[in-house]
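Re: Re: token formats

Sure, here are both.
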Amino acid sequence: MKTCIILNPAAGRGAAGKARDELEQALRRARVDYRLITTHARGGGIELAAQAVEQGFTCVAAAGGDGTVNEVANGILAARQAGAGDAALGLLPLGTGCDFAKMFPGFDTSGLPGMAYPLAAGRMTTIDVGSISVESGGLEVRRVFVNGLGAGIDAQVAVEVQNLPRLTGLAAYIVASLRALATYKPAMMSVRYDGKSLYKRLFFATVANGRWQGGGFLLTPSAKLDDALLDLCIVPKLRLDEVIRYYPRMFDGSHVELRQITTATVERVEIASAAPFPVATDGEVLTTNARRVCVEILPRALRVVV
């Protein structure tokens, strides 16, 4: 399998870049046939992944966090749509959250040697992806996501994480969550999904393909990557005492049992508000002034090497 590694040196607060030599040693020991290139700007992984597909690589691996995975997946699918070829997505989780890789039982996230061997073995599975259209600032942005989309305070958490350069992993997301709770003002939002509708002042609405988000929050505990459905979790504005009581339940997924929380499995979702709201996909901020976002499932749209 001819593999292109796209390394985001800024992932994991720069840890991914510092691990480059160790990464290449692990790839050589695993006898992976690879070429490694690095991103130099946010969003650059999309173009690099598309170019890799055009150049005949059969696997394009994201070495970074969930945001890097998102860019590589978007590049692979853009190249396929343009008729330039196709490739599988490889995973080398070196970022802050790396929630997507947790969805694959047996995938070794403990160190680079274990991460490299699947690229040599070439075993694949096929997953669904979420396709989104976002109206923001009079423009329409189209992307796909592999793990999840957040609209509201969970996207604001992603904004706050960017302002915490010294923290990584779950600690960064916990501190960012507390900051977001202190400043975020929930807006009236409408959520329409599979013939149903809801109009409330919301903390957030999450549309997920995977179970975990934010470095370890089990927001959608029943989600599956290959069921041709997305999992929806809607959290309305809560009182401070409710936030204090319920916040820990997002780590084990028991928050979905609360009467205040709305959950569903859906094929299509539309989220809209008269007030601008932030949107994040796979942990990366897409916009902070969305007015409307539409999400739909693309069944079995992407092959992943695990």
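Second one below.
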Amino acid sequence: MIMIEKKKIILTGDRPTGRLHIGHYVGSLRRRVELQNDPSFDKIFIMIADAQALTDNADNPEKLRQNVLEVTLDYLAAGLDPGKVNIFIQSAVPELTELAFYFMNLTTVSRVQRNPTVKTEIQMRNFEANIPLGFFCYPVSQAADITLFHGTVVPVGEDQKPMIELTNEIVRRFNSTYGEVLHEAQILLPDNQACMRLPGTDGKAKMSKSLGNCIYLSDPAEVVEKKIKSMYTDPTHLRVTDPGHLEGNAVFTYLDAFCRDEHFAKYWPEYNNLQELKDHYTRGGIGDMKCKMFLCKIMQEMLEPIRERRHYWEQHIPEVYDILRKGTEAARTQGRQTIEEVRAAMRINYLDDKELQKAQMEKYYPTE
């Protein structure tokens, strides 16, 4: 039996289907930046999941080709330090594909079909009966992504919880069949409830590139202001004197996610904290535009250093590709090691198993 030393390793990532938005930022990216400075973690792998993105973009690989760089720029702009994390490209680590293939033998079609995230995404993409096989199997591929690096902590949004559950089921099945080789992973959710699933600027349940309701990390200041001014609030709040409602009000959801008490001292000293503002809004007497402009100041304060860092990295593209190259080499080194451990546990390491070769030689050419 092979026993692998358990370390604290983070594995997370994003599909390169476009620039990252503030939903990505509060969902997991901000937490990654914080965790890279936590000495209790041994390694951090950040994956640009281009192979997974191909499962529903197979006819448009150029989209991913361009956005691998965009996502990397967003990572660096957000504050990820390539000296502390390994940023790598999924398709450049073939060991991921091999491990996913082995995992498919440990997972049933019905189990994948029960995954609520898969159900939602199939409906969202209108796949119906014509589901690409690669897309259907991506939860299994995602399990391989985590376990190839012995990931123990996965900082993601709440919608990925079913994926982590399936990953741990596969790990338990593998270990019970072949031996204790792989580790279960723990999901790390945002600690702010409003950050779990930030709505779009139009009030829709989810911020989505396809719905055009995103504020991107790279949006210029004037674009951010324009988007915030047009945000969905309370359709019944027609006059300033009308009582306002917080439920479904995107402006106040964003304030829950981004606002801190010190913002009031800086930008709206009439109030001490967000609760005071909410109380006033619900009893009437505050216009929506005042709330929007307060939010805008908070957002600009947060996004301005991100925009500045992105501008720097946009002037150093060869260095960005060096970062990707080094991160991918580190990922491959870890991937090769894990695959050797997996093959040995599964007893399919025929070419490296000297004992097997010796036993077979003696079978056909027994020594006296």
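The longest helix spans residues 317-346. The CA atoms of residues 45 and 346 lie 26 Å apart.
- S.
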